Each structure stands twice: as C-alpha cells, then as structure tokens.
C-alpha cells in the first residue's frame, strides 16, 4: 500500500465518502431506476391453497395433484407500454387498475404420467384472473354434447366465465372464433374478445376455450402490435451485436490468449498453482449446484407430465452434479490462469491463495484490502444511481421499471443460496476474466517489448470496453447504455486491481451483486425470511470474519512478510521424468496385443463393410443451390410475383431431422404404418430433403420487412410448399368463413391435386387484424393410411383474399407421443 493508505486520516475520509455515497444511492435509486409498488397480498403457499380450492370447486384437478407456483409478469406488454404506449406512468397505472393485471401468481396442478393439467392464474391480491385446463384429445365426457356448434359453445363459455370466474363480458366486444375437431369427433372452440379502450395501439383481449361442452380456459392477455415487436427486436439487435462482439473479443483475447496459450506458457515454466484453484472452483460450482437444487420447485413448470417424479429428481440431480463438477473445473481453470498470471506480472501483490493464512490475514495490508473492498460498494451504488438518474432524466434513456418485492424468491428451499452463489461466481469469475487476465497479459507483453506502462494502459481501456460490451444484453436503450455505464467503474476496478490485487475487486464486485440480488429477500415479510436474511449477511461477512479471527489468533497486527508477496514465489525445479516407454511395452500380454492390432483393425473394417447398411429410404439431395434458387424464382414468376433487386435470396438444405415435429411424423409413420408405407409417403405427406429458399428485404422500414417468401424445393426442382408472410398491418379483404374456405379448397386442388370433398374439416381459425382478416384451415385425409390413430392433414392459410401458404403434415396421436 502507499503511505497515504497507512494513515488514519485516509480511512476517515474513505469511510466518510462511503457513507455519503450510501446516502446518495438511497436517495437516488428510487428516482433513478423506476420502481413499481405492487399490492401483493398473497404468499406462494396461499396462492397454492387458493388454486387448490378453485380446482376442487370446479373439478379441474384431483385432490392428490402436485402443485407448484411462481410469480410471473408480462414483460412484452411492459416493454410496449413504457416505450410506445404512454410511458412508465401508463404502465404503473395499468398495474393499479382492474383492466388487466400484468403481474400474477401462476399455479400448476398436475399428475405425473397424466395428460390433464391445470394452470390457475391469480392477481397479486389473490383475485382469480383466469385458468387453462388441458385435457386429452381423446377425452369425451359427454358424447351427446361432444360436437356443439359455435353459437351453443359460445353461450356455455360466456355463462361459465361469468358465473365461475367473475368475468364481466360487458367490458368486451366479441372479436373472432376458431374451432378444432379432434379425431374422436369432439369439437373444441376458442372465442376471443377485446376491450374497446386501447392501450396505445395495443388491445386488451380475453380468450374463452371450450372442449366439448366444458369451459377449459379463461386467459386474459394484451395483443401487442407486431410492428412494435419488430421495432423492439431491431433495437435489441444492436444490444446483441455489441454483446456478441465483446464476447468474441473476450473469447479470443482472454480465452485463447489467456486460458490456453498463456496457460501452456505458464505450465512450461512450472508457474501454475492448481490445487487451491481447483478447490475454489469446486466451492463455487457446489454453491451454484446447491442453489439449482434448492430452486428446483420452479423447474416443475418446464417438466412434462410424461415425466415421473423419480425421473425429474434424477435429472435435477445429474444437472446439479454437472454444475458442481464440470462447472467447478472450468472455473478452476480460469482461477488458476488469472492467479498465475498475476503472480508472474505483479510481484508486489500479496499471493492470492495465502491471503487468509494466519501470517497474511493478520496484517494491515490484507485487512485494508478487505475493508477497502467493502467500503467501495456504496460508492459503486452511488455511481450507478447517478448515472441512471442523469441519463433517464436528461437524455431520455430507458430501462424497464423494476419490482423490488418478489414473493417468488421464497419458493426456493433456501432462497439465500442463489444470490450468494451467483454473486460469488460473478465476482470471482468476472474479476479473473475481465481484470486479472487482460491486465496481467498487458503488463507481461508490454514488458517483453520494453513498454510495460503502455501495455497496461492499453489493457485497461480494452478490458473496460469488453466488460461493458459483454453486459449489453440487458434490456435498455440506447444499445450502448450498458457499455457507457460500466466504462468508468471498469477503469476504477482495473486501477484498484493494479495497485492492490484481486482481493478488493472480487470483494467489491461480489458484495455489490449480493446487495442487488438480495433486496427482495429483505423486502418480503414471511415466516422464515429472517433466516435467509441472516444467511446473506453471514455470507457477506465471511472475509471480515476471517481477518478478525486471524488477528485474534496472532494477538497483534504485523507487517505482511515479503515471503507472502508474489515476487517471493519461485517455480519448483522440473521433476526428473523416468524413462517409462520400455516399461509400458514390456510384458507378454502387451506385446501380443501390439502384434494383433493390425489384424484387429482389418477385422473391424471388414465387419463394418459387411454389416453397415448402405441403402437409404429417402433419396439424397443432389440439386445444387443455384438450381434450387432458379426453381424458386421460376415458381414465383409463374404466380405473377416479381421481386425487385432489394430482395435477398438465401437457401439452405432442410432435413426431417432438423425439425423436431417433422422428425416425429417420420418416426410415427415408420413404426406404426411400416417401412413400405413410409417409403410411399415420403415426398407426399412426409417431406424429403428439400432446399428452403427464403426471400427477404434487409433495408427499409423494419415493419414492412416482415414480408417474406419461403419456398421448399425438392430434388427434382418442384415446389413442395410456398409461404408468403405478410406484415400484420398490411391492408386486405375481410372474407367470411365460407368465402375463405372456398379459396382454401381451391388451393388444395391447384397445389396438391386433391379434391376437398374427400377431406374433412379439422380446424378453422379466424384472426382479425387491424386492416384485414386472416384464416387458417386444416383438413384431415381419412383415405391416406399413416398409422393407427394418426391422420394425414393439409393446412391452408388465407391472408385477406389471397392464399398465403399451404402445407402437409401427419397428425400424431397425443398418447403415442
């Protein structure tokens, strides 16, 4: 340390500045980062109990069904309203009103192994907000009321929504309908309603689902204009580009240059110290694994009901083991590289792995670094708050409003584990990757060419740019807001590392993250919350506690011995490697095995040539890319479509294995209808290898660029499928269902040569857009055998008064899947 840091006056000033910064951060945070105040009156357990009561009353789930809950929110709606639909005040007003709740409790009630399951949605105050009940496609509970017409089904839906769920349909107008006929003959309906008062250009909507004569869904949602989604993704693409370039730079400079080339160079000179690095890596990995296991209740939302309880927990356990071992070893590699490079580049720094030994931790040098790391956290919080206050207030920059109270956090068995583990991982890993490795390399490479100072200066700037860019994926506009925000802190952290080593930067980084990640734990008033808060405080206090313990053991403060600085460390002499080649080759078995290796190789090749199948059920693709694009161009010209030079053409070969759904269709037909039927259907109902040719525009209005063409070209140059995607805002006709169906049936004859009279209507979906009506029709072909329970189907899309797509697929029974 410098002489100044030895003085009491320095620490008085530093502590005072830290306290002032804490007060500034506390004052600025609520105004710098908009915070929503939600009236959350229901805990997770209360949400589950309420959902179970509703399910029992309406017979939506058996009493023994498993129940899991999470607190969710509609991020898409929030982004739209805050950016284009009235701003943050409008979104805050929406959360306080009763038109639509963008935050809700979601409770899943299910039985492993059963298809049926129910999701119950509750508002933060506990009011029922909707549900979705999935039932098997083969379920027929009232045969005499299995196939209701649209009018009767809608009457049932509206009555039950009003009586069972308290839905006030007088606030909505009817918008559109869809229906789907199951293989059992059961007709399912969906009715969509819309509130007249818009939210900007968005619309608050409600869907009512009916299966047979049973109401199976009441789902409120906000329809956000497609145009906003495209504009938002266009803005986000800049964030992603910055983050991708930063990650690529980090991978090349720090990964290849630091963790591979530098590691080999250090190993060659015996400069690596691996044991403590492996220990530290496994500790971080174990904490992350424990956190994932503790929070595995939330993983039930992603688990399929085909999964048994034993399978679920086995998968969770294996995942945790991989995180602990594989992740821990990966962290160890980075820790080992960073510490070894630091030891080589900065001889005045204390040796990292001995900082908490009795001889080191009881010194003012280590105590000062520890306390200094803590005291910088309020300063960093104040810097962040001041940055957002200034940019949001005067520059109009945007970050989404935050909800600091998150009742979902108590869903983990040990909620404190996740913020503790993630903070430690981020602090240790990122300081090694973004500070120690590049700054050490800058010092070493600069010294190699007699420009140590210049090398360090360049590394300081580069690490700040890369660190800020790597965090650009966080939502916020402009895209460069995060790199700008983190540039100055990165410079400060780099300077702290250069002078004092890794300890203070790891401490300040990890503690800073822990403060932010743990805020919800300290705002939730629930039984047991104090235990989790105590765990967080205890984890944050570990470094100070170790220093205090070592000081008590030593009985006095003493100066850090020079033997504990990096400059005192010396690599061990290379070990003498014994000649072992002859020993490995010795022995009767070994010699015989070596003599037999050529013969074993020949036998293996012969077995492969004799037994391996060299025939395929599907002809390989021989058409080249230019031929595919030429066939696609000709097909569009035949349709009267002339695309200008602003349209770009991209082509790629698609196989059935590229798409999970298509591959399922192929497997089903092969197994259930047999190989002969499979070969007959490849090329008709089942897609062979095709060229997918895509036509898009990459310049001009981002909303209009939603228009594109996709054509599937077979090996003989024929068009298997043609799809024309239109922007949602494109004007068009509003055809009736009958008129649109006539277009669809004509398309079946023109494109597939099939008579619609031989097919049965499976589904008819209506979509009311701002300036046109779109339809989608699905037809079943009972005359084509695809396997027991399956059905060959055709789907035709109509946009306005034009057919925009037509295709074929195989309906695979739910039970078979």
General form: globular
Give the averaged pLDDT, no decimals: 91
Task: Quote the distance from N terminus to C terminus.
Answer: 67 Å
* Helix/sheet category: alpha+beta
**What percentage of the residues does DSSP assign to strands (E)?**
15-25%
Q: State the total count of DSSP E strands.
A: 16
Characterize the structure shown.
The protein is α+β, with helices and mostly antiparallel strands. The protein contains 21 helices and 16 strands. It has helices spanning 8-32, 44-58, 75-83, 88-96, 150-165, 226-268, 275-294, 309-345, 358-361, 364-395, 417-448, 452-470, 481-500, 502-523, 529-554, 581-585, 588-611, 625-638, 660-672, 675-681, 737-752; strands at 66-73, 103-110, 117-122, 128-134, 173-181, 187-194, 203-211, 214-223, 647-654, 690-697, 708-713, 719-725, 760-769, 772-781, 791-799, 802-811. The protein has a 16-stranded antiparallel β-sheet. Helix 7 packs antiparallel against helix 11 and helix 14 packs antiparallel against helix 15. The longest helix is centred in the N-terminal third of the chain and has 43 residues, at 226-268. It is globular and about 95 Å long. Mean pLDDT is 91; it is low at 575-586.
């Amino acid at each position: 340390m410098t002489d100044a840091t030895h003085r009491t006056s320095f620490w008085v000033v530093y502590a005072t500045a830290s306290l002032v910064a804490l007060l500034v951060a506390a004052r600025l945070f609520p105004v710098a980062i908009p915070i929503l105040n939600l009236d959350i009156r229901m805990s997770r357990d209360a949400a589950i109990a309420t959902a179970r009561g509703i399910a029992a009353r309406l017979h939506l789930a058996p009493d023994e069904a498993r129940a899991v809950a999470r607190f969710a929110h509609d991020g898409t709606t929030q982004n739209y309203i805050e950016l284009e639909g009235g701003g943050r005040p409008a979104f805050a007003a929406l959360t306080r009103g009763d038109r639509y709740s963008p935050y809700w409790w979601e409770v899943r009630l299910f039985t492993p192994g059963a298809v049926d399951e129910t999701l119950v949605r509750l508002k933060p105050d506990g009011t029922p907000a909707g549900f979705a009940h999935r039932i098997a496609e083969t379920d027929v509970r009232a045969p005499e009321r299995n196939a209701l017409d649209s009018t009767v089904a809608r009457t049932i839906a509206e009555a039950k929504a009003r009586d069972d769920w308290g839905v006030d349909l007088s606030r909505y107008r009817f918008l559109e309908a869809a229906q789907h006929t199951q293989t059992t003959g059961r007709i399912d309906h969906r009715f969509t309603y819309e509130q007249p008062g818009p939210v900007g250009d968005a619309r608050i909507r409600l869907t009512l689902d009916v299966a047979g004569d049973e109401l199976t869904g009441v789902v409120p949602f906000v329809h956000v204009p497609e145009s906003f989604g495209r504009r938002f993704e266009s803005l986000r693409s800049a964030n992603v580009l910055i983050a991708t370039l930063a990650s690529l730079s980090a991978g090349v400079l720090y990964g290849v240059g630091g963790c591979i080339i530098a590691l080999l160079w250090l190993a060659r000179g015996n400069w690596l110290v691996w044991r403590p690095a492996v220990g530290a890596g496994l500790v971080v990995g174990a904490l992350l694994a424990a956190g994932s296991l503790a929070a595995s209740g939330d993983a039930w939302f992603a688990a399929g009901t085909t999964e048994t309880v034993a399978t679920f927990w086995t998968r969770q356990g294996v995942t945790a083991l991989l995180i602990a071992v594989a992740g821990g070893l990966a962290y160890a590699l980075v820790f080992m590289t960073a510490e070894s490079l630091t030891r080589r580049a900065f001889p005045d720094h204390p040796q990292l792995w001995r900082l908490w030994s009795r001889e080191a931790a009881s010194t003012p040098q280590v105590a000062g670094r520890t306390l200094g790391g803590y005291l910088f956290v309020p300063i960093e919080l104040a810097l962040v708050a001041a940055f957002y206050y200034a940019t949001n207030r005067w520059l109009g920059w945007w970050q989404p409003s935050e909800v600091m109270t998150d009742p979902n956090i108590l869903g983990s068995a040990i909620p404190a584990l996740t913020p503790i583990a993630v903070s430690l991982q981020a602090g240790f890993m990122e300081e090694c990757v973004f500070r120690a490795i590049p700054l050490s390399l800058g010092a070493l490479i600069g010294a190699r060419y007699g420009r140590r100072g210049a090398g360090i200066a360049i590394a300081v700037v580069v690490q700040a740019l890369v660190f800020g860019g790597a965090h650009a994926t966080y939502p916020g506009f402009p895209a460069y807001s995060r790199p700008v925000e983190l540039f100055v802190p990165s410079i400060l952290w780099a300077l702290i590392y250069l002078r004092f080593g890794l300890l203070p930067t790891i401490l300040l980084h990890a503690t800073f993250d822990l403060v932010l990640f743990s805020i919800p734990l300290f705002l939730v008033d629930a039984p047991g919350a104090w235990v989790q808060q105590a765990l967080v405080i205890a984890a944050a206090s570990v470094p100070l506690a170790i220093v205090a313990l070592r000081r008590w053991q030593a009985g006095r403060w003493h100066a850090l011995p020079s033997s504990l600085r990096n400059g005192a460390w010396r690599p061990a002499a290379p070990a003498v490697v014994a000649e072992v080649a002859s020993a490995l080759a010795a022995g009767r078995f070994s010699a015989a095995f070596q003599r037999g290796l050529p013969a074993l190789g020949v036998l293996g090749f012969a077995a492969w040539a004799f037994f391996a199948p060299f025939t395929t059920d599907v002809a390989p693709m021989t058409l080249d890319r230019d031929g595919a694009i030429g066939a696609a161009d000709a097909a569009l010209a035949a349709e009267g479509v002339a695309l200008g030079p602003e349209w770009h053409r991209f082509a790629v070969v698609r196989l059935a294995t590229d798409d999970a759904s298509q591959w399922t269709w192929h497997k089903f037909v092969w197994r259930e209808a047999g190989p002969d039927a499979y070969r007959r259907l490849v090329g008709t109902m089942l897609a062979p290898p095709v060229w997918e040719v895509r036509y898009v525009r990459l310049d001009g209005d981002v909303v209009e660029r939603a228009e594109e063409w996709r054509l599937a070209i077979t090996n003989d140059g024929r068009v298997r499928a043609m799809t024309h995607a239109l922007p949602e805002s494109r004007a068009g006709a509003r055809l009736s269902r009958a008129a649109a169906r006539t277009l669809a049936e004509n398309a079946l004859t023109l494109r597939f040569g099939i008579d619609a009279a031989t097919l049965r209507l499976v589904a008819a979906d209506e979509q009311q857009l701002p300036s046109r009506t779109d339809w989608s029709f699905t037809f079943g072909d009972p005359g084509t055998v695809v396997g027991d329970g399956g059905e060959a189907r055709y789907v035709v899309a109509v946009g306005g008064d034009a057919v925009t797509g037509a295709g074929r697929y195989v309906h695979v029974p739910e039970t078979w899947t």
